[in-house]
Backbone:
């Protein structure tokens, strides 16, 4: 990977889970525990397609897909957060994509745009030791429309004070890549460079 390939952009925006942080195994375990708790089925292929969506919306889609009547999944959201909090105390590993953020630190403004909550994102970035690389963190609670809608990345560009068309986004999920393109930004699919082993819900 040639880091200088991104020098013509004015700002870099990164997804977090699966892009900067190797947290997919952590999230898979938290999801499996949570789906058992709220009595929803584990649908591996569907779970892979929902990467980047907020927790509540993911639960709603699982229920819709499985033909289960809609109900209040709010308790499941809190349960999953508790499981993530407990699991991340065991440590959080970074991915090779973090090297790009290190390379551009002080050269380009950088942000995180994630489907996780903002508070959770700050905690994970701090535990991983990379919080100082990013001046802006946009979590799912900061916007009303989530990936694949462009709002997360548009807000990141706004807070970086950079034209969206001058930003590049690093993503590992189809929804995030679609969101970046909808925002008028170039998107880098990091799965071409790195993927967790074993894969998410495989």
Residues:
């Amino acid at each position: 990977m040639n880091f200088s390939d991104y020098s013509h952009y004015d700002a870099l925006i990164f997804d977090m889970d699966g892009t900067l942080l190797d947290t997919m195994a952590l999230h898979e375990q938290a999801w499996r525990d949570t789906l058992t708790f709220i009595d929803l089925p584990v649908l591996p292929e569907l779970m892979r397609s929902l990467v980047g969506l907020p927790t509540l919306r993911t639960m709603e889609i699982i229920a819709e897909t499985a033909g289960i009547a809609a109900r209040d999944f709010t308790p499941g959201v809190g349960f999953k957060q508790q499981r993530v909090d407990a699991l991340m105390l065991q440590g959080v590993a970074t991915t090779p994509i973090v090297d790009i953020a290190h390379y551009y630190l002080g050269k380009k403004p950088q942000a995180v745009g994630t489907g996780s909550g903002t508070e959770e994102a700050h905690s994970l970035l701090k535990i991983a030791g990379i919080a100082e690389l990013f001046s802006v963190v946009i979590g799912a609670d900061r916007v009303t429309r989530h990936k694949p809608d462009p709002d997360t990345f548009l807000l990141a560009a706004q807070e970086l004070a950079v034209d969206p068309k001058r930003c590049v986004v690093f993503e590992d999920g189809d929804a995030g890549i679609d969101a970046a393109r909808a925002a008028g930004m170039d998107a880098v699919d990091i799965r071409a460079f790195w993927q967790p082993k074993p894969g998410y819900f495989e």
